[in-house]
Amino acid sequence: MKANDSFLAALNPACKLFAHLIVMFLLMTITNPKLTFLIWFLGVFIGIFLGGWKISYLLKRLLPYIVFFILVFWMMAAFGEGEETIWKWAWFHITMESMNHGLTIALRMLAFVTYGLLFTSTTDITLLIMSFIHQCKLSPKWAYGLLAGFRFIPLFQSELTQMKMAHKVRGYNQKNSWKAFMRYALPLFTQGIRKSERIAIAMEARGFTGTRDRTYYQTTKLAAKDFGYLLSLLIVTWGIMIFIE
Questions:
Q1: Which of these, 89, 92, 126, 226, is most buried using a 10 Å CB contact count?
Q2: Cα–Cα distance list, 124 to 17, 106, 153, 234 (Å)
Q3: What is the DSSP secondary-structure string of 186-199?
Q4: Which helix H or strand E contains 89, and what residues bound it?
Q5: How many whole angstroms separate alpha carbon 42 and alpha carbon 238?
Q6: pTM for the full model?
Q7: How many CA within 13 A on the CB side of residue 18?
Q8: Would you kindly state where each structural domain of the chain is located, as residue ranges?
Q9: What is the pLDDT of residues 63-103, one digit of tens each?
Q10: Do 229 and 19 form a contact (C-beta atoms < 8 A)?
Q11: What is the pLDDT, as a whole number, of residue 104?
Q12: What are phi and psi of 152, to 5 degrees?
């Protein structure tokens, strides 16, 4: 996760995550496709005007999920049950009830992706961990371990790319996927253990004990804009659910 220069990037990560999780929870209680669409569109609106999204960025991130959207809608609509038949052929039976159910599930999936992307694209991973410590009272031992785990992901990706290029140069061509997996997984696992040991020794050498009574280079606080965003998002979402229903 990497933050940009938008308004959402300046918010407290824990408060922002809490707001988006509440919206996702409310989406799970909705069975109206129109409501689900409006709440999804609200996330797109926030991303464009408050999250620094561009239309090209939005299309690039969401287009891969359109295929899943269509597949989920078709499976729910074509094989559902209902009384008001719209179209029927062979074993396909589309009813008004099944089509509404399919639209709701597909749009709900798309909304989850949108609100998740809205969080990850505007949040710095270090500030997120710091907010877990200061606002959510997470133990520093677990928090810094989680931060180190996130930092390992791009390192593993770069090392895997280097290993594949090295094997390709040496003419290695393994068609068995399981053997190829073991060939790459073992050195990556070994490197991961070595790096984790080095990090643990470095943290102990600098006096890290995992206690809460310590100083921090970065701290996060809750401000009025954080509560304003949380309340505004919940009020607008609740208003859509009340007036559209």
A1: 226
A2: 12, 29, 15, 23
A3: HHHHHHHHHHHHHH
A4: strand 85-89
A5: 12
A6: 0.81
A7: 15
A8: 8-127+222-244, 140-205
A9: 888 888 888 877 777 666 666 666 566 666 667 677 777 88
A10: yes
A11: 86
A12: -75, -25
